[in-house]
Amino acid sequence: MREDAGRILCRRGRAAIHLGRVSCAARRRSGFTLLEIMVTTAIFSVLLTLGVSNYVRARSTAQTRACVKQIRTLQAAKQQYAMLHGLPASAAPTLADLVGAGLLRTEPACPAGFAYTPGTLNDEPTCASGLPGHTFDGP
Q1: Same structural domain, 26 and 92
Q2: What are phi and psi of 58, to 5 degrees?
Q3: Is residue 97 situated within a structural domain?
Q4: How many domains does the chain have?
Q5: Considering the entire predicted model, what is its pTM?
Q6: In 33-131, which ranges are continuous DSSP H helix?
Q7: Do the domain assignments include residue 107?
Q8: Is the pLDDT of residue 7 over 70?
Q9: Cβ pair 8, 16 in contact under 8 A
Q10: What is the separation of C-alpha 78 from the centre of its chain, rounded to a whole number of angstroms?
Q11: CA proximity to 97, closest of 80, 110, 111
């Protein structure tokens, strides 16, 4: 450390107090550098991107599973309605018929916001969304 014209100069970042004068460490400004802020922002952006994409994927998967469950329930209600009323395989009960018979509480709707078409007893119920996975997949 050397003294030039009444001020202290720092060497290698070391701080010292010389006769009541301000040290080199005290002269430094406190706060974050632009680089630190940019790195923090980049890390936050990456984490946010991963979190949002996982949320969207999980929401889509949950909607698909709920839709398939409702289609299965609709198929079971159609079969029960046919047995209760002795209908032939070509009969096509409506959603109102199934709700009126007490086999469904309310008319089901796809979680993605679309309606179902029950179809005939031989056909499987369908979802109007046309989204992948929104189909009947078994008995």
Answers
A1: no
A2: -65, -40
A3: yes
A4: 2
A5: 0.65
A6: 34-85, 95-100
A7: yes
A8: no
A9: yes
A10: 33
A11: 80
| Contact between residue 68 and residue 116 where contact means Cβ atoms under 8 Å apart | no
Residue 139 lies in a domain: no
Q: Determine the residue type at 53.
A: S
- Quick one: pLDDT at residue 2? 53
Plot region of 7 (φ>0 → left; ψ -120 to 50 → alpha; else → beta): beta
Residue 20: give the domain boundaries: 1-30
**Who contacts 81 (Cβ-Cβ below 8 Å, separation ≥6)?**
87, 93, 97, 98, 101, 103
* CB 131 within 8 Å of CB 112: yes
> pLDDT per residue over 25-70, tens digit each?
555 668 889 999 999 999 999 999 999 999 999 999 999 999 999 9
SS (H, E, C) 2-33: EEECCEEECCCCCCCCCCCCCCHHHHCCCCCC
Question: Is there a single domain that holds both residue 86 and residue 117?
Answer: yes
- Which amino acid is located at 123 in the chain? D
- Residue 126's alpha-carbon distances to 13, 25, 29, 54, 90, in angstroms, are 73, 72, 67, 28, 16
Amino acid residing at 3: E
Indicate whether 75 and 86 sit together in one domain: yes
Q: Which two tokens stand for residue 134?
A: 């929104």
Please name the residue that has the structure tokens 């002795």.
86
